[in-house]
Fold:
Amino acid sequence: MHTSGTEVSGFIGIIIVQVTILIIYGIFVRYDYEMLPTTNVTSEEFAAIEKQHRVSYPHFQDVHVMIFLGFAYLMTFLKKYGFSASGFNLLVAAISVQWAFLARGVFQLDNGLIRISLSRVIEADIAAAVVLISMGALLGRTTPIQLLLMALIEIVVYSSNEYFQIELLKITDAGGSIIVHAFGAYFGLAVSFVMRMKREENNAGTNEGSSYTSDIFAFCGTIFLWLFWPSFNSALLDDISQQHRAILNTYLSLAAATVSTFVVSAIVSHQHKLDMVHIQNSTLAGGVAIGAVCNLLVSPHGALLIGTISAIISVFGYRYLTPFLVSQFRLHDTCGVNNLHGLPAILSAIFSMFYASVATTDIYKDSLNDIFPAMNWKNSSYALEHNTTITVGGFGRTNMEQAGYQALGIISTILIALIFGALTGVVLNLPAMRNLKKDEHHDDDIFWNIPDDFKHI
Amino acid sequence: MHTSGTEVSGFIGIIIVQVTILIIYGIFVRYDYEMLPTTNVTSEEFAAIEKQHRVSYPHFQDVHVMIFLGFAYLMTFLKKYGFSASGFNLLVAAISVQWAFLARGVFQLDNGLIRISLSRVIEADIAAAVVLISMGALLGRTTPIQLLLMALIEIVVYSSNEYFQIELLKITDAGGSIIVHAFGAYFGLAVSFVMRMKREENNAGTNEGSSYTSDIFAFCGTIFLWLFWPSFNSALLDDISQQHRAILNTYLSLAAATVSTFVVSAIVSHQHKLDMVHIQNSTLAGGVAIGAVCNLLVSPHGALLIGTISAIISVFGYRYLTPFLVSQFRLHDTCGVNNLHGLPAILSAIFSMFYASVATTDIYKDSLNDIFPAMNWKNSSYALEHNTTITVGGFGRTNMEQAGYQALGIISTILIALIFGALTGVVLNLPAMRNLKKDEHHDDDIFWNIPDDFKHI
Amino acid sequence: MHTSGTEVSGFIGIIIVQVTILIIYGIFVRYDYEMLPTTNVTSEEFAAIEKQHRVSYPHFQDVHVMIFLGFAYLMTFLKKYGFSASGFNLLVAAISVQWAFLARGVFQLDNGLIRISLSRVIEADIAAAVVLISMGALLGRTTPIQLLLMALIEIVVYSSNEYFQIELLKITDAGGSIIVHAFGAYFGLAVSFVMRMKREENNAGTNEGSSYTSDIFAFCGTIFLWLFWPSFNSALLDDISQQHRAILNTYLSLAAATVSTFVVSAIVSHQHKLDMVHIQNSTLAGGVAIGAVCNLLVSPHGALLIGTISAIISVFGYRYLTPFLVSQFRLHDTCGVNNLHGLPAILSAIFSMFYASVATTDIYKDSLNDIFPAMNWKNSSYALEHNTTITVGGFGRTNMEQAGYQALGIISTILIALIFGALTGVVLNLPAMRNLKKDEHHDDDIFWNIPDDFKHI
Structure:
């Protein structure tokens, strides 16, 4: 196998990256203060640490299951790509989390050092999710080395955009619909577009299909994502009321999206039979679509409505848009991340514009300042009446301005993702990188020693 | 496919139900107060909310995994029905939880409104479990439309019976053996009986068997149910001592049931080899059998004993009773819910009678009032000695009376389940409903676009 | 089948064990005090119980998933042994936890009684893990009766060694690398060595291989172990700072081990393609290797380094050492527990020696006394300066002495495991026990009624 040498050099490249990360950690990364032994910690401080820990650790583990098991198994739907889907998911995520501590840490330096703690671990896992979403668009058409290089670039861009959106634009996006899902989806699609096959090669690969068993494995991934999505959307919320709302709204949105997915799938699919691709993916669209507004007062019926709409859009995307993009633009999207993450995220941003435009202190009370930190509520009747002295940092946005910033958030995120995704695609296409040929796509045999029965699949 | 039209009309029926639910939510359903922004919440109130949240959210997620993953994968044991088992489980549960908020909410109205919160979400998940148990009895012999119609009816009857048992009869049933497991099992069996095939069709379907892979998928469901059953039985207990006991008793009962299942399966099965059906199901009987008494002082050896007995009954049920009911009464029970849920639940009710008959304030102290709210302990020596002033609402039951109410509880639950299950079966058999023919049973090909390899299974 | 009788007599042996355990429980086992109803519990005491409960229950459930699902599915990698791997895992663990309450309880007697509580449940689960590790070495080459007999013996030796190491030698081993992983691995290997086949039989069994599907099931086990290993290592730590460090260090070590596993696997494997055995197992070596030092101040880069080294050792072990031991010593190790548990545990012990040798009160403050209870820090400059009055029970070890005790800990653990493992092997080889023949190895058909498609695998 003349190609194997290339792979080994690629894997040696990985170990160089791993050693480099290790050295950077040695120089710059330290435990956060709460993780250090202390002499004189008051019982109040201690209680606060404990509280934070107890709230966040089960939440962290739920998110952890989503990233490393949910995404991994959702991608095992291809009949001959199960090892790569689940294995490379683990590899890519393991590099991504290490790198994310650094890429995100530079925006939170403490005397030139990066302090890591349990809440940083949740955020690192979420950063890995971004890369895994992009990986879904490319699934089966890259080497693991290309995926890892993409991860290194994407994590840096993601971290910068996250800082830009949250700290500078001050958008609200508790569940990460904009900064995680839209970013990951359109970054991956841009990479996919740049790496697309020449026209003559662009016939459907014989391996790009599922088997009965692989579909059931994949559905297991779906269910874990479905189960823990309320934890994902609520993981980083400190305020207990907001966290409760994020959990309940996500739960309701997912339930409604599930019902609509089955209905629309039966209506639009071949012979009016259900399509497992829709069930595996569009049932989750409700989790994405509620993301940016999950902690807002969308009301239970609002959550149901958002879930319903998102699933309809998602199934139609799988049924009509994805084949259209392949046939017209040779834009492949193996897992359909545009339909699961991209379009529902745009929907979520639109809802966030609507809810920003109607948010008042009369309904949100003090928490408005937490949810929309740049809005002007100092002179609201509520603020005057309650004689509050909280200031808002000089932003003083009106409702419409905040809605405009939400729009700016999703538009700028998509643009940044597309531009840097395209540049990343150019890098991955460099002659120095091994590129898979068409007949090597979606085939575990290229990268793995496979069991004897594999050839009969 | 002339049948497809029927299905589409059925799916359109579902979307009408979903929209109706959405409208009812808009009119009647609101966030509970704790989920609303507040101006003046004291730190004590806040701490109480936080405490509740922290206790219940991991518990909720454990139960959530059971309902949506455990039940789903346990039902994938049929070789050609994995898509339907896991997919329809998700669909039925997603409708059920939405509907359960309403059906249960009418018994807890707040000024004409239904308030939903995180603890209501656990209860909605448990209501879905009831329907999924019934679905187990029917697995592979109905359309998804029939299942959803059953869910809508069953949730209403379940919610009413739950209210009747807990609020009016004041039985103890912390783990839901009576109100969840017995109800779900006998409701489903009654539906199954009414929908049974005509005699001439009643030969064993060729698809009603497992494959090696499908059995391993199903065992994955078993294990998740096994793991989180202590959370299921303890999820709704506020008192920490009772919750600890519920966890530990369930854990011990399951461990003992597991050992006994293996032993009895080896003894009674063909060639004295283990039967995977027993291992998948009867190992869980200990969770059901301990349910109604899990928070009582059954003692560790009591928990082991209950688990042991339940598994013996369950394996014998699978080995002898289920085939007998099929051959004599054409009563099919695909997953054997009578053996996993029905008989162990009756056993649990019998144990609850025993423990009610010996419960005294000397051993339960103040908590007796919480566990058996209708028993008379005002004039017990304990109450007199401790000079307690707690009253018991005028019920003043003796031990024997409470034991009688426990008996009344299980008997009335089974009767209600049988009657309304039979009526539901009549509805599902109406000419307007599509009914599956014998050769359409246990076959994903009827409802799903299936991968190419399916036809070789 | 003349062998079946033997099996039934074996299963009847199991029920005798189960009944004996039940009787012992009746005489000696009681709920711990916190689980009993109380009259006058102060709110402080109540809060302490609640706190403990909340911290430990999600941790327990994570560990619970590892033992009953992670280990079970990791062992399903054999193509024809999935029922036995997952089923016997459940059976062995179910007996082991019941027995562990007793075997461990005799070291914590309360007026002659064994009190069980939620934290004892975590410890019982961990004791079961020890047996399951040993089972991994033997997988497919024993009857379930032999496994259960081994469990009964091993749990007793394990409990005694645990007491010896922690209470008498006073070593530090928060994650159980020494007392759990090294013990389980070398106990199992000693059993395997004694039970090894005669030379003429020792050709590779035709069933000792994986299938594409079985490998993906096994990887599911890997991922659950990988996900919850931070919970395993931190489950029994009370101090919140130590628990945080244990979580974060384990997380980082696993991430680094994963990356290194992929790289080394690609370099050393056939055709430079990845080997699924390495990915399934060596990615977890980081969890073992960090175990004994997970709560120490190893620093983030230290955790990455430990994970990296452990994975390199582990993959080399699978690639070169395991085949060497089979060919030279006929020492079979089906799951390669020496490479996943044994060698990384020795590495962990070596690291614990290093970190013990440099631990001072200047860096660990008061917590040194908790981590190394036998070290002398009374007269350290820190102790004098802070005027502390905490005594250390007269041990007064220096850093080098503590490091020596860590060395003594791993050496004595391995020796005890080897000796009692060999004795156990002798017992399992007794003529009274049914021993599998070579052609019965790794074959579910020996113990299970198997589906029709099994014969085509």
Notes: DSSP finds 16 helices and four strands in chain B. Residues 236 and 321 of chain B are 33 Å apart (CA to CA). The longest strand of chain B covers residues 29-31. Chain B touches chain C through 67 residues (CB under 8 Å).
